[in-house]
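Figure 2 data, in text form.
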Amino acid sequence: MNPFRDKYGLHGKLVVVHSGNLSYVHPLDTVLDAMVRLKDDPSIIFVFIGYGAREKDINEHAHRHGLANVLKLPYQPRELLGKSLGMADLHLIVMGNAASGLLHSSKIYSILASGRPYLFVGPRDSHIVSDVLELCAGGFHIETGDVDGFVETIEKVRRLPVEERRTIHLRNRAFVASHFSRDECLARFTKHVIGPSSGS
C-alpha cells in the first residue's frame, strides 16, 4: 500500500498528480477546466504537490466553483519522492506553448521512473513528445485547451486493464534507464561537446 494514499484517504480513487513548480510557464487553465467538468465524480481527485505563482489560480478556481476534488500538498523531501509520485494513477506535465524550446520539463524523468502513465498538456513541438512519447508509448498528449481530450484521457486511464498498467510500468522504467541514465547522458554529452575519441 502507498503511504500517501493511506494518509489522505485516497484508496478507491483515481488520483491525478501534478508534482513540481507551479510557475507562469505552466498554464493550468486546461487542468482547471477539466477539474470543473469532473467535479461531480467523487472517484477522481487532483493532487498538486508544490508551490509557485500559479498556486493562486488553483485556490481561486476551487473557491469559485466549489471544488472538493482538489488536494494540495507541500514539496516532499527527496526520501519520500518515490512514494509521493507512486500514489498517482496519472501524472500531469504542463507546458505553455510559448515555452517550447526554452523550457525543459525535467520532471518527465522521475515520472518515467515511477512507472506511472502521464498526460502531457502542451505543444507537440516539445522534447516530451519528440524525445519520449514518440519513442515510448507510456503516456498521452493533448494540446493546451483540449478539455474534451483531457477528460477522455482520464477515462482511458480508468479503463486500463491491470496487465496493461503493468506493461506501461515496465516500459517506462526500462526506457528511462536505457535512455536517460547518468552513464548514458554523460556519454552523449561527451560525444557532442568533446567529440568522438581518437583512440590515442
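Caption note: The first helix runs from residue 3 to 8.
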